[in-house]
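Session log. Operator J.P. requested a structure for one protein chain; no other inputs attached. Running the standard single-chain path with token output.
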Amino acid sequence: MSNITIIRADKALLPQLIKIWQTCFGDEEGYIRYYYDCTFSWSEIYAALDGEKAIGMIHLLPAELDGAKAFYGYAMGMLPEYRGKGIFLKLQDYAFSLVKELNMAYFLKPANAKLASYYQTQGFDKGFYLKKAVFYAGHSCDIELTDIEPEEYKSLRDSFYEKPGYVRWGLPFLEYAIAENRNSGGIVKKIINDSGEYIVFGSVAGNSLLLRE
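Structure written below.
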């Protein structure tokens, strides 16, 4: 193994990053390319190189956490043959240094309990949890369901969720998230009823409506 270096990724590295993404997460190339097309200009991407070969990556998406500037760690992966060698720690330390230099917060959402435990050993604290609730159709009510543009979605989202621990996304991220969800067959709508206006972000699975927001 040659000397490992960490660099900020440029567009010339995208074909290799796509291969790492596919290896680690199994997504289709079109999905990954769409992500990069939408986010490359405003996100931070750092790659670990073995010589000229990209072997690992971290994506940092800008956000606000409790009103403070923050980065969200996303799509962090390492090629299988390079795991367990301390290289990902080197890549993670590089991201830590950047965040510290910019005086920003850093948060992520591990995919499972094992990863959550791992990140806690790396200095992360638990800050959020996911709660799942199931509602059954029992009665109908008068509502109006309309399309919604990203700007209005952001305004309603910010006003509704503005509480301690709230993650405020910028408009570019929400534009991507809304478009990606719609392209995947999901729904992004505004609900209007007697009590006010609300956002709906989710997908349909059989006879169920799976709502994320």
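Operator note: Strands lie at 4-8, 44-50, 53-65, 68-78, 105-108, 144-147, 167-169, 187-193, 196-205, 208-211.
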